[in-house]
Design brief:
- This protein is an all-alpha fold.
- It is 80% helix and 0% strand.
- Helix 1 runs antiparallel to helix 2.
- The chain is elongated.
- 3% of the residues are buried.
- The mean pLDDT is 89.
Length: 76
Amino acid sequence: MTESPNPLHNPRLRRAMLAGVLLAAGGIVLFIVLWILLGNAGLDQFPRLIISLCLPPAAIALLVGVYFLLIQPRKR
């Protein structure tokens, strides 16, 4: 009986973790950039917070959606 390979050493898992870290870092950076830009534009605190919190996840969802709809089907 052969031993099953360790699923944590899979190259796909490493790429997925790297993509997740990059998307998370990009979301944080986008939040900070929006917060500063909207503050300089003179927007009040509450709308500034809501926009800064909602746009980064929407941008991440858009990137992931484009990847799954356009790029991934070409690989098959």
